[in-house]
Amino acid sequence: MGTTISSRQNPKQLPPSFMFSIMFKEIILEIDEDEEKSIHNLMTHCHQHKVSELELKRFHSEYHKHSAIWWYSDETFLYRMLNRDLRLLDMEGMTKMGFFIRKLHQKIEQFHKEPSATYEKQLTVYRGQGLIQEDFDNLC
After folding, report:
1. 26 in a structural domain
2. Cα–Cα distance for residue pair 94/89, rounded to 1 Å
3. How many domains does the chain have?
4. Among 63, 128, 49, 26, CA closest to 96
5. Distance (Å, rounded) from C-alpha 75 to C-alpha 65?
6. In a domain, 13, yes or no
7. Is the pTM of this model over 0.85?
8. What is the pLDDT of residues 37-54, one digit of tens each?
């Protein structure tokens, strides 16, 4: 969940939105719910956000054939909606996508833990942080 730190904030103090997003993530990852019911609720939510019937039918019939990473990287409506919800910190939208977020998180964790012949060293994952120009200049 993206956060931009401005020069008016104490750089040693985390913004409330960041702290809230961390707590929200922990809650989302701990929820244990019926997957079929969650898929139905997500499809209802997507229908309300004008996702095409064709995309919804494809998702419903093919969801279990692919991993969450596949669905996310295929740039389906899931990719668009999740990125929008994360960017806007739309808690309702992220809650509706909670089961998908959990599956995506689990798969990323699994890949990170699995030894791979492809990677000789530890895999490092980076995430960006937005800064205003003044704060960036102060880092140097």
Report:
1. no
2. 8
3. 1
4. 49
5. 16
6. no
7. no
8. 988 888 999 989 899 999
